[in-house]
Write a structure and sequence with these properties.
Largest sheet: 10 strands, mixed
Strand content: 5-15%
Strand order of the largest sheet: 1-4-5-3-2-6-9-8-10-7
Number of helices: 14
Order of helices and strands: EHHEHEHEEHEEHEHEHHEHHHHH
Shape: globular
Structural class: alpha/beta
Radius of gyration: 24 Å
Helix content: 55-70%
Distance between the termini: 22 Å
Number of strands: 10
Oligomer: single chain
């Protein structure tokens, strides 16, 4: 119910962004990387050819020995990774369950950046008016939309009666400049001490603000990462992504939260202490993972980041494989860009040990793990076909499927999720994860070569939960 119109104003938002390399500079960079990679490949090939005749083992014995060692190493690393994450996630859950935080309700600005989100904007704002919170405002940032987003946003502007009191809804309209600049515009406009940054197509759970803000009673907490869940389920790829978010992302985020070192505050839901954002230098547009970049900058400033599982953002996931691969291509390259941007912390942990630890885990997940997984699958299939190790490979796959199923059961139980997602764990690693890892590997090559990329946008259907 619109009670009072808000006066329309015009503001200028200054953005200080890193300048992109010129076309000539990029070409030279690509050529340099091609030459370096070619020389290194030639050296490695020469070493293999030169040393192979001096080996004491036959080719068959060498392959058999390498297979066993590779299988053992792969499984050991996988088990160590799984149980390490599960252990820390359990410790976090134990603390979360028994260490109760008192209520804390500071004024919060919810920043909603939108670009061609006219089909879902009204539903998103309506969900925000139903939050179980009394002290907040909503700031829509129209980032140069070409559809009816501006008209829809303008019709919403005003003082609305929320679930627990009046809520001010305002809108900033600016030329298109990307999500990072849109968020910066909203944060700069806000006068609140805390801001919630989200996606224009997302819908938040009623408890989101109430559960997230209570953690800011700890003055060392600079941000709280929320729990992203897939809205449009009941299809193969979206159900697999729903399981991935629960098992692959939220479990890892819970483990990191035990150390207060969450590595990525997800774009669909993150609550920040505005002071932490200002010290970090706001969002930057020089990577395709502005959320990961800002998270690393906040950690580098000495702030701690917590994960709140009951601050939920429901978001649409890609339905088709092509859409999914485009999304993961952008995610991978964006994370690699963020790692390269903060690479000095990889070499010198004395600067900020926590940030260095997080960067090394991101480096492992983005570069080493996908390469290991692809190599293991190709290598094991090869030896099964040409050396008859079919039974060994079968047991290997069954072991991984069992491990994934146990992990899925734990994560589904912890988050009180749909039990029907658990059977997907049987194909999760052998099909879904492998496909994503191949996409990550190709994205890594393109990022290494410095090839141009575009943001890309998922078409929304405006589904409701």
């Amino acid at each position: 119910m619109l009670n009072k119109k808000i006066k329309e104003t015009f503001i200028n938002v200054k953005n200080t962004e890193a300048t992109e390399a010129t076309g000539v500079g990029k070409k030279k960079q690509i050529i340099k990387r091609l030459v370096v990679s070619g020389v290194l490949s030639a050296i490695m090939l020469f070493i293999i050819i030169f040393t192979l005749p001096y080996t004491m083992l036959s080719v068959y014995a060498l392959v058999e020995y390498a297979t066993l060692i590779a299988l053992l190493m792969f499984l050991l690393i996988l088990i160590f990774r799984y149980f390490g994450i599960l252990t820390f996630a359990y410790l976090y859950l134990n603390n979360y369950t028994f260490n109760k935080s008192k209520g804390y309700s500071p004024f919060v600005s919810i920043i909603v950046p939108v670009y061609n989100e006219g089909i879902v904007l009204r539903d998103s704002i309506q969900s925000l008016l139903e939050l179980d919170y009394t002290n907040y405002e909503i700031i829509i940032v129209n980032d140069g939309s070409t559809d009816n987003t501006y008209d829809v946003g303008k019709s919403i502007v005003g003082i609305h009666q929320g679930e627990y009191g009046p809520v001010k809804v305002s809108m900033i309209s600016k030329p298109n400049g990307g999500k990072a600049r849109a968020l910066n515009a909203g944060i700069s406009y806000s006068k609140a001490e805390f801001v919630l940054c989200m996606d224009g197509d997302s819908a938040l759970s009623k408890d989101t603000l109430k559960m997230a803000t209570r953690h800011f009673q700890d003055p060392n907490i600079g941000a709280v990462a929320g729990n992203v869940k897939v809205l449009n389920r009941k299809k193969l790829y979206t159900d697999l992504q729903a399981l991935e978010y629960i098992e692959g992302l939220n479990m890892a985020r819970a483990a990191q939260s035990f150390l207060r070192l969450v590595n990525i505050i997800p774009g669909p839901i993150g609550v920040f202490r505005k002071k932490a954002i200002e010290q970090a230098g706001y969002y930057s547009s020089d990577t395709f993972a502005e959320d990961a970049d800002l998270t690393l900058k906040i950690l580098a400033k000495g702030w701690r980041i917590y994960y709140e599982p009951r601050s939920i953002s429901w978001t649409e996931a890609p339905v088709k494989l092509q859409q999914l691969l485009k999304q993961r291509y952008r995610w991978t390259r964006g994370i690699l860009q963020a790692i390269r941007k903060h690479k000095r912390l990889l070499y010198n942990p004395a600067i900020n040990f926590g940030d260095s630890f997080i960067l090394w885990t991101m480096f492992y997940e983005s570069l080493i793990w996908p390469a290991m997984n692809i190599f293991a699958n190709v290598f094991f299939i090869f030896v099964a076909l040409f050396y008859g190790f079919t039974s060994l490979i079968l047991f290997w796959w069954l072991f991984l499927a069992l491990l994934d199923m146990v992990s899925a059961m734990y994560c589904v139980a912890v988050e009180d999720e749909e039990m029907r997602l658990i059977p997907y764990s049987l194909i999760y690693r052998m099909f879904f994860v492998l496909t994503i890892d191949v996409c990550k590997a190709m994205s890594t090559v393109e990022e290494f070569l410095g090839l141009d990329m575009t943001w890309g946008k998922l078409e929304r259907t405006g589904l409701k939960k």
